Amino acid sequence: MHGVSTPVLFLASTSPRRRQLLTEAGIGFALCEPGAELDHLPAPPGTPPAQLAHERAQRKALGARSPDPRVPVLGVDTVVDLNGVELGKAPDRTAAAAMLRRLAGRVHRVHTAHCLWLPVSGACVDEVSTAVVVASVPTEAELAAYLDSGDWRGKAGAYGIQDPTQAFLRLGNGALDTVVGMHVAAVRRLLAQLGGRA
Description:
- The protein has six helices and seven strands.
- The protein is of the alpha/beta class.
- The protein has one domain (9-193): Maf protein.
């Protein structure tokens, strides 16, 4: 349980980046299996990416297998929003290259939705954090080097702004950790709303 006997929260996520952010913030946590991120029905066409992130974060939290109902469960979801269209995780190198080329030379938004659920009471609070990312146009060599690194795997929009293997994406506005995958200040606010400690 990451150095604490009773965690402040259960993290319903498989993301190593979210674990790292909580650890660096000193928020004691333990992991639990998240609920299914996707509903059995597809989202209606034109659903805003921020809404998709919010719905997935709720499903991850509310559907999690909590080991202790007295401890809140945190579900988080991050989406890359290019002019109202979600760019998800690239399944392979070709798809990753295509996504990065779509982003090149453009400004886009990243939404990270947080849902904190307390099973014992049923209380549920949530918050969506948004940041703006500016993408320059990488050279073919820069793009190939990043794709070769594999750092894009498992990441929304096929990139990690924190990756040392890329230098063509930078934060334009908002919090960097929102783009990485969890806005720690939002987590602290949600814990405070539920009367927790952080």
